[in-house]
Amino acid sequence: MFEVLNSGSSVALIGEEGIGKSSLLWAICQQAGSRLYSPRQSVFLDLNYIDNEEDFYSALCHEVGIKECTGYLLTRNLKAHKNKILLALDNVGKLTWQGFTRGVRDKLRGLAEGSDAPLKLILAASEPLNDLFNDSHDEGKTSPLAGICQEEHIQPWNETTMRDFIARRLARTSVSFLEEEIVRSVEESGGHPRKLMQLCYRSYARYTGGGE
User: What is the rounded CA–CA span in Å between residue 146 and residue 128?
Assistant: First the structure.
């Protein structure tokens, strides 16, 4: 992800619900200070907590630390801000809901275009941006965000990763799973992190009577 960001592109993390996009998004924000060649202030917004465009711009300005504004003033204030911004938007599919228009996506594109742009974007979505924002298909257009974001598809964990995850979590406890329990959890989860965690918790609860 940092190779893409350092090349000048924004990034869209694409994957099914519960695959780990939010965790990855947060980890990128936490590591950005040491891994971006050109320093940027990390700003994380979960769109599940934002109701409409007005709310979005208010939240963005608050988190960046500038006076609440939109339109040209937003562009001017972001360009004049002491820090360039790495803007992480979780649950970006919310931008399709009532209260949001294509205008906010056009604005984000304008602010994120170019190597010296005031914004670089990391988006988390459950489907490709051109599919998600199908209003962009009018008159043969493509999604304004798809045009500047390199899509990275988040894949399920392989068996080695799943076994390592289980071993690390159990290392903090006095519990050990039987091999058949591990195999069952690996097979039933299909590499889906959230499903694996749920299956492992059920196994763990059988050893502890439901306690942590």
Answer: 8
Identify any residues that bridge with 122 across adjacent strands, giving them in sequence order. 11, 88
Retrieve residue 2's tokens: 């940092």
Q: How far is CA 17 from CA 109, 168, 194, in A?
A: 25, 24, 9
Give the pLDDT band of residue 102 (cuts 50, 70, 90). confident
* Rg (the chain; Cα; Å): 20
pLDDT digits (tens, 9 = 90+) for 36-83: 999 999 999 999 999 999 999 999 999 999 999 999 999 999 999 999
What are the Cα distances from residue 120, in Å, to 42, 99, 117, 146, 193? 10, 24, 7, 13, 28
Q: Is 207 left (phi over 0), alpha (psi -120 to 50) or beta?
A: alpha
CB contact burial 50-59 (16+ within 10 A = b; e otherwise):
beebeebbeb
In 3D, which of 5, 7, 10, 2 has the Cα closest to residue 144?
A: 10
Cβ contacts of 181 within 8 Å, gap of 6 or more: 203
Tokens for 63?
A: 């988190």
CATH 3.40.50.300 applies to domain 2-153? yes
